[in-house]
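Here comes an entry:

___
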Amino acid sequence: MKVGVVGLGKMGGSIAKRLLEGGFELIVYDISREAVENIVKAGGKAAKNLEEVASFSDVVITSLPNDVAVEAVYLGKNGLVDSGRKGQIFIEMSTITPHTSRKIAELAERKGIDWLDAPVFGGPLNCGKWTLPVGGKEEVLERAKIVLKHLAENIYLIGGVGCGHITKLCNNILTGINFASVAEVMNLAALLGVNPKKVLEAISNSPSAGNSNALKNYNNAINYDEPLKSDFDTIFTIDLMYKDLDLVTRLAREYKMPLITGNIALQIFEIARAKGLGREDVKSVLKVYKEWSKL
């Protein structure tokens, strides 16, 4: 099977490499020449444009930063929808609104192109072990599993088009709240004279709060002796967390649904961005609390 990947950031690059390991014929496209060259060196083929991706591929996967980029790739002149053909499957794996997903899917399906939205639960280092909530038709998902099973251990059909993206936005509310709350707890523990690393170790092995992946991520990454001075490898940035929380809070407002804790988390990450932490890893939100606690 021939697969195209558009968007070779951390997530898209991981997808491309994983598919090459799975033996797929692969063509890739990205505005970053360096990102494309990395995949070419691993055995992939570089596309000159989106039209070439569409003409080559049985399945096209997109992993892009936002709704604007997704719309441009699919709906721009000579984009994927223009260039696609009947029987292809488009799989959208970015974090975007269900409105964008449904708009593109409707136009694609007029040409006989099948659509799945399958955003990712997991980081780039866990590609192959991801969980994918999927929106689309069951029969299309069954055809696409030959590709998706190389990326994910758990694949859930949530409902129709857009339902995968809705599920991802719901997940990211919890993710944002969890990262902020763990940072809050760490600083409180330190302020009260207890080593935050020891506090997190104890909570991590409890049957309730210990189930938080955010807590475990902090616990694995922080320095034991000086937890609040820890620097983190950048895996998922504060800017991206803010973008995701902004998407879901705006969507909730559209439907007149108050998101109390979701909006609080959004404001915390907005403060972190205002302090120049936007390009740092999401765990660096603890620096905001550190400043507030004067530690």
